[in-house]
Design brief:
Elements: H1 3-9, E1 44-48, E2 60-65, E3 72-78, E4 97-103, E5 109-114, E6 124-126, E7 151-153, E8 162-166, E9 169-174, E10 182-186, E11 196-198, E12 211-216, E13 223-228, E14 254-260, E15 275-276, E16 286-288, E17 304-309, E18 321-326, E19 335-336, E20 345-352, E21 368-374
Parallel strand pairs: 7-16
Antiparallel strand pairs: 1-21, 2-5, 3-4, 3-21, 4-20, 5-8, 6-7, 8-9, 9-19, 10-18, 11-12, 12-13, 14-17, 15-16, 17-18
Length: 375
């Protein structure tokens, strides 16, 4: 859908509502309407590819054999969204949406690979394993494993791409969304109120937001903030770049500042998240940044940053503060083949920009593939 169409319909490209549940596109299929005026349908048949189970990380591929007499198939391919940030309720990016029509030959076997969604980290906990990206045509990036003995904030992982293939060759790919940004503030009891934050993972056609966290200490009224630069979306066959960490914040007497740039996408796969540790062993929380989405090319992972104010051995005063930020992951790219693959070809297509709110919890949300044809 074009920007002009969005404006006419008064539809925002992204709607962020605090505490709102995630949503994915709902596909409505007519059961008696013709697919083409020149050859009216007696019946429209809908075929829904099997989605992967929510408990696993793998994608699921369903073979579809084109029935006798069928030469055209309409499709809707949706990539899987990235994982959400559980503690802070920041949302993962939605997967891409590609619709259109295929010219096919009866007896052709189409492989329908539905991508698995990313998942969110559970928050602070000792020895937390990494969050694994959803698998698909292009795997979502993982959030990096922690070092044993250090406390961890696991980030969100990217969603996998969904695809229609002939053999192993793609006809259509919808990229997966990037993992949500995340952050941690310590000690939370020293603040004047809830921290302010904003950010969402990338979707194809809609780049990830840079995270910004701002808070005020109750002891001295000092306001500190720290950004979390996001990874870049993939474009065509070019993977997205990793998020680039910013310069040292200017607010307050900073005693330590550590950064780590995100990783670019790797081929079809989203970039894996990175981490940064603190200055002192007693405060060595590792902030794992979110992974990028998978697709025809993978999105980049977000950067990780850590700032410490007033942190020193033996200092437990109410004026000390630690902020960890991890920027969102970028989305994987969509793809529509411009040449026939075997006897199948894309005759028309439309790439839509997803709208709505991505997942904000730990449950994986898969992509989808729907086919319709005249019988």
């Amino acid at each position: 859908m074009s920007e002009e169409q969005h404006q006419k319909l008064n539809l925002p490209r992204r709607t962020v509502v605090a505490g709102a549940a995630w949503s994915i596109p709902t596909i409505l299929v007519a059961t008696t309407a013709p697919l083409a005026a020149a050859s009216p349908c007696r019946t429209t048949v809908t075929f829904q590819a099997t989605a992967p189970a929510a408990a696993g990380i793998d994608s699921f591929t369903t073979p579809f054999t084109v029935p006798a007499g069928v030469t055209k198939v309409n499709f809707t391919v949706v990539g899987a969204p990235g994982g959400g940030d559980v503690p802070n309720r920041l949302t993962g990016g939605l997967g891409g949406i590609v619709t259109g029509e295929l010219s096919v030959a009866p007896g052709t076997i189409l492989q329908l690979q539905v991508g698995q969604g990313g998942t969110g980290g559970p928050g602070p906990s000792p020895y937390v394993a990494s969050t694994t990206g959803g698998r698909g045509f292009g795997n979502g990036g993982d959030s990096i494993p922690v070092v044993a003995g250090e406390r961890a904030h696991a980030g969100s992982s990217g969603g996998g791409g969904s695809a229609i293939l002939v053999g192993t060759n793609p006809l259509v790919v919808a990229g997966g969304g990037g993992g949500s940004p995340t952050y941690n503030i310590s000690p939370i009891i020293a603040l004047t109120g809830p921290p302010q934050s904003y950010g969402q993972g990338g979707s194809p056609g809609d780049p990830a937001d840079d995270l910004l966290v701002q808070t005020t200490l109750a002891a001295n009224g000092h306001t500190d903030q720290l950004s979390g630069p996001a990874g870049g979306n993939a474009s065509g066959s070019t993977p997205g770049a990793g998020g680039i960490a910013t310069s040292v914040p200017t607010e307050g007497p900073i005693t330590y500042f550590g950064t780590n740039n995100g990783l670019p996408g790797s081929g079809r796969n989203g970039g894996n998240g990175v981490s940064v540790a603190g200055a002192l062993p007693s405060t060595s929380w590792r902030k794992s940044s979110p992974g990028g989405g998978g697709g025809y090319a993978g999105g980049g992972s977000g950067s990780a940053q850590r700032a410490e104010w007033g942190i020193a051995p033996g200092n437990h005063a109410s004026t000390r503060l630690i902020i960890d930020t991890a920027g969102a992951g970028g989305a994987g790219s969509n793809f529509v083949s411009s040449v026939p693959v075997g006897t199948s070809a894309v005759t028309s297509s439309l790439e839509e920009i997803p709208t709505g709110v991505g997942p904000a919890g730990p449950v994986r949300v898969p992509g989808s593939i729907t086919l319709t044809y005249c019988a």
